[in-house]
Write a structure and sequence with these properties.
Helix content: 55-70%
Number of domains: 1
Order of helices and strands: HHHH
Distance between the termini: 65 Å
Strand content: under 5%
Largest sheet: none
Radius of gyration: 26 Å
Oligomer: single chain
C-alpha cells in the first residue's frame, strides 16, 4: 500500500466524516473503497463482458463466415454507384 495526501473540499469532507462515523470506518477506508469501485470494478466488468462476447455468433448459420463476407464486399459495385 502506498501513502498519499489529498486536498478535499470542506463539504465533501463533512459528508465523508458522517459516513465514516455511521459505518464505523475511517475516511481513508471510504476513499479507498470509492477508488476501488470507480477504477477497478469497472475494468473487471468490462473484461468480463468482452470475454462473454467471445464466440457469441460462432453457431449462427444465417450469416456467412468472415472470408465469404469480405469477398462479397470486394465484389460489390458500391464505388461505381456512389460516383454516378
Amino acid at each position: 500500500m502506498k501513502r498519499t495526501q489529498l486536498y478535499i473540499e470542506d463539504d465533501v469532507w463533512k459528508v465523508l466524516a458522517i459516513r465514516a462515523k455511521q459505518s464505523h470506518s475511517t475516511i481513508s477506508e471510504l476513499v479507498r473503497q470509492a477508488l476501488r469501485e470507480k477504477y477497478l470494478n469497472g475494468m473487471s466488468n468490462r473484461k468480463e463482458a468482452l470475454l462473454a462476447a467471445v464466440g457469441l455468433w460462432k453457431d449462427r448459420s444465417d450469416i456467412p463466415d468472415g472470408e465469404t463476407y469480405v469477398r462479397r464486399l470486394r465484389k460489390d459495385h458500391r464505388l461505381a454507384r456512389i460516383r454516378q
